[in-house]
Amino acid sequence: MTDDPGPALELLVHGVGGTTPQEMLKDCRTVRVTGDDIAGIHRRIDDTDAENRAGGRRDGPVREAYCWSNLTSGNGSRALWLILLPFMVVNLVHWMRPPVPDEHLSRAAARRAARAYGLLVRLIALSLTVLLVAAACEVALDLTAWQCAGSAACTRDTSWLGFLAPERGGWWSPPGRRLALAAVLPVVLTGLLWWPAHRTWSDYESQPPLRPDATRAPPDHDEDGLDEPGSGERPALSLPGFWYGRRLVARLRAAHTATGFLTVAVLLAAAAARHDRGAGAGTALDVTGRMLAAALAVSGAAVVWVVCRRGRSERAPDHRLDRAVVRLLPGAAFALLMLTAVHTAWERPGWVSSGPLPGNGVFGLIGVAQGTLVLALALVARRLQRRAPGGRVALRGLAGPAVAVLACALGGLLSGGVAQREADWLDGPSTPGMGDGGPALAPPTVLAWQAAMIPVLLLVLAAGALWLAHRSAQARRREMPAVLAEYPGARADAARTRRIAGAVARAGLTDSAPRFVGAVAVAAVLLGAAAVAGAWATGEVPGLASQDLPRPVNAAAQTAQALGSWLMGLCFLVLVAWGRRAYRDPSARRTIGILWDVGTFWPRAAHPFAPPCYAERAVPDLSWRMATWTGNTGGRLVISGHSQGSVLAAAAVWQLDGRARARIALLTYGSPLERLYGRWFPAFFGPASLLALHREVHSWRNLWRRTDPIGGPVRVPEADDAAGTGVDRPPLRDPLAFERTVRHPLPEPVRGHSGYQEDPAFAEERALLLGRFPGLPPQRDAADDGPPTGPVTDAGGQAGSGRSSG
């Protein structure tokens, strides 16, 4: 008999930004062995059938590279997903829930708290859909069809609206018909939001996860990923249905699509209802309008019920679809919209458009509703965190509510920016709402007050930036002695020392991000409340509301409103311009791809119009590959992940059964597992989850640097390491040499988040991991490999230029 344990495999997973398989494998001759053009696994051509080769003992493992960058940044059209930024941010809030305490809350109380958290996040997400569609209605219905088209001064300057002008007496001249025609724009917007959500749902959420081991009983989990308290369940990311949110996304997509249609219908009905009630109650149009209003109210209640009825169910892959909800809810809402449009377009003698459109006060109501929901979310999160185990949790469990505030603020910024830019474009040189001789266009007063708060918020941001700069300068001074101590015998070089200490200090600012986010969220809440209160109390834009105040105060109020209005519009235009640039510029497309790599790791659990979750494709890919390879060959596997690739690797290992995990070693470097994910998503990457992962894999080592602004230690207790060493290696020196040496004749760069594979510690740790598998041939040291056949690469496969790949 032979003691040959079978082949060994090293599976490389790159970080954000992406790279090529040639760079990852250090060979220009590679071949894809499985997968497609979107995401696939590649090998060197010489290793294509390495497992089946006769007498195939080799020095070191077979190397494979999993390339997943096209899941997020491969298509230039995805750059336009920047407009969906508020939806992406609010989706992250769902996953920021504090861990459910196992001992201090009863089973029923823990379930109620977790369900309430998920429900509140879904309602906040629903309010963002209403806000975006209402902003489109403000532009199309109010500013364009109602105010500008009804004003002779405005249509004189905008000839393309001439066919709507009342003085021309055309078929489209009556206000109701103008509104019905303008409603096409928000309806098309709703359809454009639905279409990519439907298409990406087919490409991502419908990917089947790894089939669970039939001998393993599924843990008892309820909706929203809630464990049964006190029963020692496995981490939530190990649940078979965690990466398969097909049913929930379909329900939410139907509900949000219906919400868009109903928002347009409500604003149309509100405009007609004011005229019909003024013309006399009991008329046929008044009765019809009341019947439509009742139907709209029932439909709105049905949408809210669908959103509240069911959260995520992760106990097992749920292949069912609520077809009645998915098909009937949007269809019924669209039919009501069509009936409302016909009702509004019906000829009404004597109906003229003057002043703002009835119903534009919806922006103030949305702001109040969002503030109430965020406050309730903060109370639930605080209740969970107060009784949960300790740990490095961002903002003491209030990270979710703080980020929810930022999502609402982003939604308000985009909505207000669109409305303000449209008003400025239509009224020419005059100031909207100020009555200075131009067309009397009046955007919603709440938006004007929000615009006036933008300069104040910018001052808060500037103060926060100065505070971070001050902390960085102080940290750099403290780090300079420690930098020299890392290089004993090196000659002192003040400039070189400052440069290295500055990199360490800037990397440490990542740990100050929660306080900065919290301060911005508090400022946004206070300023938003002041904007709503000022709009409701005065009914005028800030400049007009201050006529009784001294002239300098009045001038400051007008300046703040004008500057804020300009800044709101500028932010929207910058996002659009950045998206268009990404069509032609690969570097811009990669930059935008990095943003989505970080923000779209999590499934769409709150907002279906958010960019799709690439992990719902990448995690099943990796877990299927590891399970099938170890099962078919009986060999051992090292999965090697850099940056975001380490998060994907950990999530994939969690999906395996115990027999497969026993054959797998985990090597992570530049990993944000604890530093970012553990702090911001403690219910899923908290200390208990990372400790469980460490205990279940064969072995795990983590490499990190103090100059790395993203990666860091995973902080798994060393006492739980069966091999007697901790998961975290002591921090790697960066740069490798302080000054020129015989081995490093040229100055070594400060690599920060890149270049991990170029550090000798990487080859050393990989060899140690393989050596822990009994009977495996040792890994050759990198120094014995000779010159590489391709470009020198870092831990994520990036060419060694010192740039960050994470």
TrEMBL record:
Transmembrane segments: 79-96, 117-136, 179-197, 254-275, 287-308, 328-346, 361-381, 393-414, 447-469, 516-539, 559-579
Record keyword Membrane present: yes
Region entry Disordered, spans: 206-234, 714-733, 767-806
Claim: Chloroplast is one of the keywords in the record: no
Biased composition (Gly residues): 797-806
InterPro entries in the cross-refs: AB_hydrolase_fold
Annotated keywords: Membrane, Transmembrane, Transmembrane helix
Name of the molecule in the record: Integral membrane protein
Lineage: Bacteria, Bacillati, Actinomycetota, Actinomycetes, Kitasatosporales
